[in-house]
Design a protein that fits this description.
Length: 334
Amino acid sequence: MFVSVINFVSLPLIFNEEYNKNMNKLAVIALGGNALIRSNEKGTYSEQINNVMKTCDSITNLLKDGYNVVIAHGNGPQVGNILLQNEAGKKQYGVEAMPMDYCGAQTQGSIGYLIDQCLRNVLKREGIEKDVVVMLTQVTVDENDKGFKNPTKPVGPYYTKEQKDQYVAETGAVFKEDAKRGGWRKVVASPTPIKIENIQLTKQLACEGYVVVTAGGGGIPIIENDGMIKGVEAVIDKDLASAVTAVEIGADEFYILTDVPKVYINFHKDGEMALDTLTLQQAEEYLAQGQFGEGSMAPKIRAAIHYVKHSGKECIITEAGQLGNKNCGTRIIW
């Protein structure tokens, strides 16, 4: 387990009625990719630091209200960059490329470091006495999960057909063509998370008042045989892993942060409408109608449904800057 602990002296929190009401409530916050890299950015270090600082500013709104907080995060752009670096290293220097589980572990460390550092600075500035723990999180999946038989999650760079054929011959990897972008891209399984490792430790630390960063990128996927574990070539959906985490630790609230303030139907079409609330039935019906894009809102709605069904509580999908606003986002309710 990779643990980073912050220690500093700061001014006491001002206790008020709202703080006392929420004291000891536990919130899980799932940060989307936009919390680190915006759609119009290259993903430079300075850009990511700036974005994470803004997100941490919002997270402190919950801390000021007395919440204990667990943070999960995505890693899609970062893993993509690592795979590009692997490719360049292999071509130019013959350096062996690392597998997906190893790359996922790399991003848990690097992104956890960014969140840790930014949150440390924001907490100190705001006079909030909190320590932060960043956990390297492995997540168990079923080796017989149907996702392994039909990989669908695209990862890494685009290749020509000739390059793709060479890689298939060398590694046995599965590729699918992206006609819109004119290339072939490797695809891996996206299995359902079964067990979040160290989940009880996450709950214990959070309830003791630590801000815990866990399940980065959906967790490092592992399978277990005869009590022994090993990493597998897969990508676990970050939002679903966050929802499972929220259920398992008994979170009172679950926030999924994205780049829009609310969930929409007919998004960017005639009849576009922002939704203040969604019942489980409505959410499932809209999913079946294809109202939510598979590369964007659909996974978040599925994660929200999982949390509400298994906890009986509500999930809030909103933009990062809206945290702390009592009327923010779209609330998915029973």
